[in-house]
Amino acid sequence: MSSTATNKQPLLVDRPLFDSVRVTTQTVGSAGSNTLFVQGGQAPSVLVDMDASLSEDNNNGGVVDSITIVRNDFHRPADYTVNAATSGTVISLISGQIVYVASATVVGTAPASGVGYYTYTGAATLTGVNTALLYSGGTATGFTYNGVNYGYKPSVTFAFYHTRGTTTPIPASGDYRLLFAKTVPADSGVVDCSDVMPQLATPVVQAGNTNGLGATAPLRNKGVYLERGDRIYVGVFPDGPNVSGYIPGAHVIAEGGFF
């Protein structure tokens, strides 16, 4: 930390920066054209506003050195799995617990809807051998069927953009730059963007570690330096099941510091 805006090392900051935005239907780019350029009518969200309106007296720019994407949707994982390996196991269920029937052939009475996820709906505790239970559908003492793909989360790509000296939202007159894009893998809930962020000028003090680097390449921090008047925007690339955005939503979180 530093008490003034002068004579600072590149990562010495006055105060912490923390910004976040929820992204859902804010699509950017075109899957049909294979481009991340923002199309007319699209409106990515502002993630970081480094005083684009030049209205703050105590803003001298800053640095963002961490961006994290956190999905908003969450599904309870299965409490028990029924298959050949677990056949004959005694289980105990209370209402709301989930059983994944991976193989219907090992169950004594065929499950009502076949293979898939079943949520126990009974009021009383149910204890028994997993293959002897009746995986019925929706009765007061039975199970609700959740489908085969219960809890599946598709991969989704987020694109990040930079503007300078303007409060006009992207795409405006095209006066923006693509910073990077990051794909959240299928069924992954949280992703760190550090691996795709630009490298900063500041080397990492780490003697003797040159793994993955050339003979003269230093290890360097990654992030985005922002002048006063800059902004970072973010949006969802509309491909596959995300043509209308990522409807369950995700929070994109930026951390760093102000100079």
Description:
The chain has 259 residues and is mainly beta. It contains no helices and 17 strands. It has strands at residues 15-23, 45-50, 62-71, 80-82, 90-93, 98-101, 116-120, 126-129, 143-147, 156-164, 177-184, 190-192, 199-203, 220-222, 224-226, 230-236, 250-258. The strands form five sheets. Strands 1, 3, 12, 15 and 17 form a five-stranded antiparallel β-sheet that branches. A four-stranded antiparallel β-sheet has the order 2-16-10-11, with no helix packed on it. The protein is elongated, with a radius of gyration of 25 Å. The mean pLDDT is 88.
Helix run count = 0
Share in helix: under 10%
Tell me the radius of gyration.
25 Å
Strand percentage? 35-45%
**N-to-C series of helices and strands:** EEEEEEEEEEEEEEEEE
Number of strands: 17
Shape: elongated
Termini separation: 9 Å
User: Strand count, sense and closure of the main sheet?
Assistant: 5 strands, antiparallel
Class inferred from helices and paired strands: mainly beta
Low-confidence stretches: none
Overall average pLDDT: 88
